[in-house]
Design brief:
heterodimer, A: mainly alpha, about 0% strand, B: alpha/beta, six-stranded mixed β-sheet, about 25% strand, globular
Chain lengths: ~270, ~260
C-alpha cells in the first residue's frame, strides 16, 4: 500500500471496518469536511481576509452544481466527458488486450513491441497532447485518441505481465488433460491472467479521468474540463469547484463499476 | 482400461551454470498394465524427473518412453497427472475442475455432469461440488485432483508425491482411498514417493532409485493382499528390508 501505483489504484484505505460503522464514519468525515470548509469561507467574508470570490463556500458550489443540473447545462458537459472517456478508454483497453495477450504469450511478439513501448512509456503522456492536437485537430478525435494513448501503456504492461506470470503447472495440468494450444490459451491462460488484467483496467479508468480534463482545457466547447477552464476565464470559482467535484464522483463511480465487475468475475479468489 | 509403459534406456542431463548435471542414468523399466508401481528414493534421486519425462513435460536426453508401444512426444490425455501441489484450476468450481477433461473432448454437458458426479462421489466430495478450490483443505484439493485425473479416463495415472504436502492422518486416509479406488479402477499407476511406508502400502512393485544420477538400484515385488494392514508382520518386514537398502544409499552419499 505504499507505491504511487497502489495509491492511484486503490486510494488510501485503512483497515476495513464493519459495514455500518464504516459508512457512518465516512459520512461523518465528509460532513466535518464540509463544515470546516464553510467555516473557512465564512471567516474570509467576516474578517475580510481577501476577496471571498476566491474561496466559495460549499453551499455556493453545490448550489451552482444544482443550478447547472436544473438548467440542463451540466448534462451536456457530463455527457461529452463521459463519451470521450468511454470511447477513448475502451479503445485503449481493446488495443492493450489485442497487443498485450499475444506479447505475453509469444516471445517474438514481445521482442518486437518492447523497444517501442519502452521508448514511449517514460514520456509523460501529457507531453504528447499538443502533438495529438497538431495531428488530429482540436475536435473529438484528438481527445479520444489522447485518452487511448495515455491509458494504453499501463493496461498493456499489466496484460503482458499477467500472461507471463501464469503458473506453468496449470498449463501442464491442462495439457495432460488433453488441452491443445488454443484451448490452453482460452481456458487456462486467459482466466488465470484475469485478476492482473483487471488491475490494469482499473488503473486505465483512473488515468482516463486524469487526462481527459487537461485535453478539455485546450480547445473544447463542452465537457467538465471545459467547464473548469471556462470558470477560470470568467472567475467563476463555484463552477470550477463544482465541475471538479462532479469529475471526482465520476471517477469514483468508474472505479466502483470495475471493482464490482471484478468481484463477480473473481469470486473464486475469496475463501 | 489400462496401458503398458516401457522406459527404454532413459538418460536425462540438465545444464546447470554451464555444467552438465546428470539426473537419470540408463533407466529401463517395464510397468505392467493395471499395476501400481512406486518410484522410491531420497530427494534429488531424479524420481520426479522420471515422472515428468513419462508425462511428456520433459524430453529425455537419450532413450524413449513407450505407452502401449507408441512413443511419448508430449503430454497427452491418456496419461493423467496428479501433482504434489494439487494444481486445480482456481477459477473453476470443484465439479467444473473434474469435468475439465471430458469438456475438452467435447462431451455433451449432461454427460460431463454425470462423470463429475460419479468421480466426486468416489472421492467423497459430492457435497462440495459447487465450491471453489480456495474453499477446500489440502486433502480435499488433492481428492479433487485425483477425481479430475480419473474423470478423463486415462489409461495411465502419474502421481508425483501426491500426498507429500498433507498431514500424517490425512495422508493415511488418502492412501486408503487410493488403494480402494485402484481395486475398482485397475489403472496403471506410477506413484512417486519418498515414504517407504506409503510405497509398501500402495505398490505392487517398488522401484528403489539410486541418488545422483538416478538409476534403478533394486525392484521389490510386494506380495501382500490388496487390502493391506500396516501392522501385519509381513508389511513390517518389507518396510525394514527396503529401509535398510535406502539407508545404505543415503549413507553412501554422505561418505
Amino acid at each position: 500500500m505504499s507505491t504511487v501505483t497502489d495509491l492511484v489504484q486503490w486510494g488510501l484505505r485503512g483497515a476495513s471496518l464493519p459495514r455500518r460503522r464504516a459508512l457512518a464514519l465516512r459520512l461523518g468525515v465528509v460532513l466535518a469536511f464540509l463544515a470546516l470548509w464553510s467555516l473557512a469561507s465564512g471567516l474570509v467574508v467576516l474578517l475580510g481576509l481577501f476577496n471571498p470570490i476566491f474561496l466559495a463556500g460549499p453551499w455556493l458550489v453545490l448550489g451552482k452544481v444544482w443550478e447547472l443540473a436544473l438548467s440542463g447545462e451540466l448534462w451536456g458537459h457530463l455527457g461529452a466527458t463521459l463519451e470521450r472517456v468511454a470511447v477513448g478508454f475502451t479503445t485503449g483497453a481493446l488495443l492493450a488486450l489485442a497487443l498485450g495477450l499475444p506479447a505475453g504469450q509469444w516471445r517474438a511478439v514481445r521482442n518486437l513491441l518492447e523497444p517501442i513501448v519502452e521508448i514511449l512509456r517514460p514520456i509523460p503522456p501529457l507531453a504528447m497532447l499538443p502533438l495529438f492536437i497538431v495531428w488530429a485537430g482540436i475536435g473529438e478525435t484528438s481527445k479520444v485518441a489522447f485518452i487511448t494513448y495515455a491509458t494504453f501503456f499501463p493496461m498493456f504492461l499489466s496484460t503482458v505481465h499477467a500472461v507471463q506470470q501464469v503458473d506453468p503447472l496449470l498449463l501442464r495440468a491442462a495439457a495432460s488433460l488433453g488441452a491443445r494450444r488454443p484451448q490452453l490459451f482460452f481456458r487456462v491462460v486467459l482466466p488465470a491472467a484475469l485478476p492482473e488484467i483487471l488491475t490494469g483496467i482499473r488503473l486505465g479508468v483512473a488515468l482516463s479521468f486524469f487526462v481527459i480534463v487537461i485535453s478539455e482545457f485546450i480547445g473544447a466547447e463542452q465537457g467538465l474540463g471545459y467547464l473548469i477552464n471556462d470558470g477560470r476565464n470568467f472567475f467563476l470559482v463555484p463552477q470550477m469547484l463544482g465541475a471538479a467535484i462532479v469529475l471526482g464522483l465520476l471517477g469514483y463511480a468508474g472505479n466502483a463499476l470495475v471493482v464490482r465487475l471484478g468481484r463477480h468475475w473473481l469470486r473464486w479468489e475469496r475463501p | 482400461m489400462s496401458a503398458r509403459v516401457q522406459l527404454e534406456g532413459l538418460h536425462k542431463t540438465f545444464g546447470v551454470d554451464g555444467h552438465a548435471a546428470p539426473a537419470l542414468s540408463d533407466v529401463s523399466l517395464e510397468v505392467h498394465a493395471g499395476e501400481l508401481l512406486c518410484l522410491l528414493g531420497p530427494s534429488g534421486c531424479g524420481k520426479s524427473t522420471l515422472l515428468n519425462i513419462v508425462a511428456g513435460f520433459l524430453p529425455p536426453t537419450r532413450g524413449r518412453v513407450l505407452v502401449d508401444g507408441a512413443p511419448v512426444t508430449g503430454p497427452g490425455p491418456e496419461r493423467g497427472v496428479v501433482f504434489q501441489e494439487y494444481v486445480l484450476f482456481p477459477w473453476l468450481t470443484v465439479a467444473q475442475n473434474v469435468e475439465f477433461g471430458p469438456r475438452l473432448q467435447g462431451a455433451p454437458a449432461e454427460r460431463c455432469r454425470a462423470i463429475a458426479a460419479r468421480y466426486l462421489h468416489m472421492v467423497g466430495l459430492s457435497e462440495h461440488a459447487a465450491k471453489f478450490p480456495v474453499q477446500l483443505s489440502g486433502g480435499m484439493k488433492q481428492r479433487v485432483a485425483i477425481a479430475r485425473a480419473l474423470a478423463n479416463s486415462p489409461s495411465i495415472v502419474l502421481m508425483d508425491e501426491p500426498f507429500g504436502a498433507l498431514d500424517a492422518q490425512t495422508r493415511e486416509v488418502l492412501q486408503e482411498e487410493l488403494s480402494r479406488i485402484q481395486r475398482v479402477e485397475h489403472k496403471t499407476i506410477i506413484f512417486v514417493t519418498h515414504s517407504i511406508r506409503e510405497a509398501v502400502y500402495l505398490a505392487d512393485r517398488v522401484v528403489v532409485l539410486n541418488r545422483a544420477p538416478g538409476r534403478i538400484k533394486e525392484i521389490f515385488t510386494i506380495k501382500l493382499p490388496e487390502a493391506r494392514d500396516r501392522f501385519a508382520p509381513e508389511f513390517t518386514r518389507y518396510e525394514s528390508e527396503i529401509t535398510r537398502l535406502v539407508k545404505e544409499e543415503v549413507a553412501r552419499v554422505h561418505e
